[in-house]
Design a protein that fits this description.
cell shape, cytoplasm, alpha/beta, Mur_ligase_N, cell wall biogenesis/degradation, Protein-Tyrosine Phosphatase, Chain A, UDP-N-acetylmuramoyl-tripeptide-D-alanyl-D-alanine ligase activity, 23 strands, 3 domains, single chain, UDP-N-acetylmuramoyl-L-alanine:D-glutamate ligase, Udp-n-acetylmuramoylalanyl-d-glutamate--2,6- Diaminopimelate Ligase, Chain: A, domain 1, 6-stranded mixed sheet
């Protein structure tokens, strides 16, 4: 990744990272900051990061050979051979990943434009893109690309904040305790949005209470003048709100400062009246599902917090199209539809997707589901509960792919689901061999699973076979 809203001055880098200048001039100006040695251009600062199977320090030499003007460095080994490059700036830091957040924080502190940061158990990217759409009429926003929301993606996004931007919208994603503090420090938000709280990343966070506490650290980072946008009546968050002094704005379909009234579900749109402190406005939402009404309300609250009018918000959200692989309604031959919602999956998002499938008027409903990852010790229980929900919704045919099929089946059957409606498959190839020849019999098809399951390949097969 590369950030190019410099110049980034060596002395400022040393100060931000609490580092030590080992060689080079403190007045050196870097044109860009890069974490990828393959993406280096002349004059860049290279930040080598460590992963599970690689160490970016191994690529410092190629980065300098490619024209990098400087390099951050943690550890004592092999740095001497880097000093042979003329005019190189070498900065010793304790941890290059943490230094990336420190650099972002220092860069952000120089900018006085409003920054909206979005986190939550599900809906982050959709809400972030909705906000970007809503503020786009009155601002030139910097917006996180895709789901670049982690310890690398968010700081690099902030480092791209330039003088031409009048606002920023970033996404903050975590999966272990302690990460949000770094992300919040990098973003220094003026508005913090929490979309939902639910059972996600339990492998790293342990409990839903921990999920709420970790995500709420984004709100704790707000100044007293900041605004927190929170789901109305969320029991995991309410007690935490008493510990902060920023403004709290709540959203909810039925209750909250931003809520939906007179909801009408049409074949391809959901129409409702946005009720807000600034008045009412009609929104005709192109993305389906009650969860997307909630997402729209969260986006509306965030946009209103930075001065966007309800009418402009409504017009922007009425024209909003979902990000790729997130509740995409794709038309198939013969009036059939494919719900391509396979970017990721957790219990909340799977329930929401199944409700959308069940609400479709098309005859014959097929759900192609797959494992929900990172749920830790609660994996089997949560898959069983999704099985129960699928049975209650009366989906005509379900194919479950992955290692938690038996847990899903136990819940499905316990809730009265008929065994002949459910098929368990070990992998996607087996699933396609079972259903491929019959795919045209189904009028509405949902494809849903965690990112690791790569269920978009199943969606591609359906499109090819239509």
């Amino acid at each position: 990744m590369r950030a190019s809203s410099g110049p980034y001055i060596a002395a400022d880098v040393v100060r931000a990272c609490a580092g030590t200048l080992l060689c080079g001039s403190p007045e050196t100006a870097f044109a860009a900051i890069s974490t990828d040695s393959r993406d280096i251009t002349a004059g860049d600062l290279f930040v080598p990061l460590k992963g599970d199977s690689f160490d970016g320090h191994d690529f410092a030499l190629p980065a300098l050979e490619a024209g990098a003007r400087g390099c951050l460095w943690s550890g004592d080994d092999t740095r001497e051979n880097l000093k042979r490059f003329p005019n190189i700036v070498l900065i010793q830091v304790q941890d290059t990943l943490r230094s990336l957040s420190d650099l972002a924080s220092a860069h952000r502190s120089k900018s006085h434009v409003p920054l909206i940061a979005v986190t939550g158990s599900s809906g982050k990217t959709t809400v972030k893109e909705m906000i970007a759409s809503a503020v786009g009429r009155s601002h030139r926003p910097l917006v996180s690309k895709g789901n670049l929301n982690n310890m690398i993606g968010l700081p690099m996004t902030v480092l791209n904040l330039g003088p031409h931007h009048t606002l920023a919208v970033v996404e903050a994603g975590i999966n272990t305790n302690g990460e949000m503090e770094h992300l919040a420090r990098a973003a220094l938000p003026d508005v913090a949005v929490i979309t939902t709280i639910g059972p996600v990343h339990l492998e790293g966070l342990g409990t839903i209470e921990n999920v709420a506490a970790e995500k709420f650290k984004l709100v704790r980072a707000l100044a007293d003048s900041g605004t927190a946008v929170l789901p109305h009546g969320n029991s995991y968050l309410e007690s935490l709100t008493r510990e902060v002094s920023c403004k709290i704005v709540r959203f909810g379909i039925e209750s909250g400062d931003f809520r939906a009234e007179d909801i009408v579900s049409l074949s391809e749109r959901t129409v409702f009246q946005l009720r807000s402190p600034g008045g009412k406005a009609e929104i005709s939402l192109r993305v389906r599902g009650k969860h997307n009404i909630s997402n729209a309300l969260a986006a509306a609250a965030a946009a209103y917090a930075v001065g966007v009018t309800p009418d402009d918000i409504a017009e922007a959200l009425s024209n909003f199209a979902p990000p790729a692989l997130r509740m995409e309604i794709v038309q198939l031959s013969g009036g059939r539809i494919l719900i391509r919602d396979c970017y990721n999956a957790n219990p909340q998002s799977v329930r929401a997707a199944l409700e959308v499938l069940a609400s479709r008027p098309n005859h014959g409903k097929l759900a192609l589901l797959a494992d929900m990852k990172e749920l830790g010790s609660q994996s089997e229980l949560l898959h069983s509960q999704i099985g129960e929900e699928t049975a209650r919704l009366g989906i005509d045919r379900i194919i479950f792919i992955g290692s938690f099929g038996q847990a899903f089946a136990s819940g499905f059957q316990a809730a009265g689901g008929s065994a002949d409606r459910l098929i368990l498959a070990g992998d996607k190839d087996e699933a396609w061999s079972i259903i491929g020849s019959d795919i045209k019999q189904f009028g509405s098809i949902l494809v849903k699973g965690s990112r690791a399951m790569k269920m978009e390949t199943m969606a591609d097969r359906i499109l090819e076979a239509q």
